[in-house]
Amino acid sequence: MQTNELVKIVNDELDLRKAEQVSVIDVKGRTSITDVMIVVTATSERHARALSEYVTVKIKEFNLKPLGCEGEQNTDWVLLDLGDLIIHIMTAQARERYQLEKLWSISTRTQEMARPL
Predict the structure, then answer these.
(1) For the purposes of burial, counting CB atoms within 10 Å of the CB of 37, is it exposed (0-12), middle (13-18) or buried (19 or more)?
(2) Which helix (H) or strand (E) holds 93?
(3) Extents of the domains making up the chain
(4) Would you state the pLDDT for residue 113?
(5) N or C: which end of the chain has fewer CB within 10 A?
(6) SS3 (DSSP) at 23
(7) Which residues pair with 26 in a beta bridge?
(8) Which of 61, 2, 67, 9 is nearest to 38 (CA)?
(9) Residues whose CB is less than 8 angstroms from the CB of residue 40 and which lie 6 or more positions away in sequence, other chains included
(10) Beta bridge partners of 31
(11) pLDDT at 111 over 70
(12) Architecture field, domain 3-110
């Protein structure tokens, strides 16, 4: 399955399950661990776990399964690794604290500054 198809499937499921502030970040060429990251806000730790479970069930319909899942128990950040796509499901407080979108935008500016003239 193409990465953009997987992103659409996951994005649709997250939307259906009331994920908030869904942000899709293209990191292809900036990291070797994945091509795309999705960062979403969950309304609570329970909602974060549920979103992770819903996405896992949905992708299994396409004969896919996560490579890993971290932070499922009593945490404000659940990471779901789907290979070419990594999903960060965070409470609002965790999202504000870690600011992943800002981190990756800094990475882009740093790469541009590091290019030879």
Answers:
(1) buried
(2) helix 92-98
(3) 3-110
(4) 41
(5) C
(6) strand
(7) 36
(8) 9
(9) 14, 19, 20, 21, 22, 23, 51, 87, 88, 89, 90
(10) 28
(11) no
(12) 2-Layer Sandwich (3.30)
Burial 65-81 (b: 16+ CB within 10 A, else e): ebeebebeeebbbbbbe
Q: For residue range 22-55, what is the model confidence (pLDDT) as tens digits?
A: 999 999 888 899 999 999 999 999 999 999 999 9
Which has the closest alpha carbon to 50: 42, 38, 59? 42
State mean pLDDT over 62-66: 96
Could you list the beta-strand ranges (E) of 27-67.
Answer: 36-42
The reported pTM is 0.87
